[in-house]
Specification:
The protein is of the alpha+beta class. The protein has one domain: Alpha-Beta Complex (phage-related protein like fold). It is built from seven helices and 13 strands. Strands 5, 6, 7, 8, 9, 10 and 13 form a seven-stranded mixed β-sheet that branches. It is globular, with a radius of gyration of 23 Å.
Length: 273
């Protein structure tokens, strides 16, 4: 009958939502610790303290480091991105229309993912106050020194997310933009100015960072400092709603985020005009 939905359409739509979500849904998910396929409503991340090496006398036993292990729990919640669609027969044969719905669903879930991650990031007590000033080199150096003093690994897994205006601020910093400091390979204009390496961090602009009045909260972190848990990957349901003479297309995702190691993340505040 005309109101039936063939399995091929549902499968194709779900695939498009999944691919779109993975490609452009979230900017932050791939920069932190991730646990997938969580069973239940809670995920557990292990936190291991630093160990100390020691010597031993001949024929004596090796001293154990006695590493301190602790757990950080992450609660998962279900999130939905839904829309009603009339004339589904047209949708089934109109590839562009189907992709528009899929992209919007993926983008909505991606924004929620990043919102959960930035909310977890915002719980850090390591802050560089705005001081009624834009994002400056001095603020960045303060974080660089703080992470160095805290023995946060400088292993290529440090990241920095700033707002669009803060990215513009950085373009006025010589050591960020001039090849004399960073070499031609790391110029910010390469690759469409989407991301670059500076001071051991991968920098990129993000329009969804928290803002309070004129203060934008930017973040600099190590991958191990924040955790993200997913109970299931993006799934899609298509149901006919007789009262609306429409089909309800719903994409959903179970997810959560938590701060694991406070030493590995800093909030850098900047005043916006």
């Amino acid at each position: 009958m005309a109101l039936d939905i063939d399995t091929a359409f549902i499968t194709q739509f779900e695939s498009e939502v999944h691919v779109a979500y993975q490609r452009m849904g979230s900017k932050l998910r791939n920069t932190i610790r991730v646990v997938n396929n969580v069973q239940g409503s809670t995920a557990r991340f292990q936190k291991v303290a630093k160990g100390t090496a020691s010597t031993k006398a001949r024929h004596s036993s090796v001293a154990a480091m006695d590493l301190d292990h602790s757990n950080v729990d992450c609660s998962l919640s279900d999130y939905y991105a839904a829309d009603y669609v009339d004339a589904l027969d047209e949708l089934k044969i109109n590839i562009d229309e189907r992709q528009v719905v899929a992209m919007n669903a993926a983008a909505a879930l991606g924004r929620k993912t990043d919102e959960l991650i930035t909310t977890a990031m915002d719980t850090t007590t390591n802050e560089v106050a705005h001081g009624s000033a834009a994002l400056t080199q001095a603020k960045v150096f303060e974080v660089f020194e703080g992470m160095g003093d805290g023995d946060v690994p400088d292993d290529g897994q440090r990241y920095a997310a700033v707002g669009p205006q803060q990215w513009t601020d950085l373009l006025g910093v010589n050591s960020f933009v001039q090849a004399d400091y960073i070499g031609y390979e790391d110029l910010p204009f390469k690759g469409g100015m989407t991301a670059k390496s500076w001071l051991g961090y991968i920098w990129f602009a993000h329009s969804g960072l928290p803002k309070s009045s004129t203060t934008r909260k930017c973040f600099m972190w190590h991958r191990s400092a924040i955790g993200f848990a997913s109970g299931k990957d993006v799934t899609t349901e298509v149901n006919y709603i007789p009262e609306k003479v429409s089909h309800l297309i719903t994409a959903n995702l179970s997810q959560g985020s938590v701060l694991i190691d406070a030493a590995g993340i800093y909030e850098v505040q900047a005043t916006e005009s």
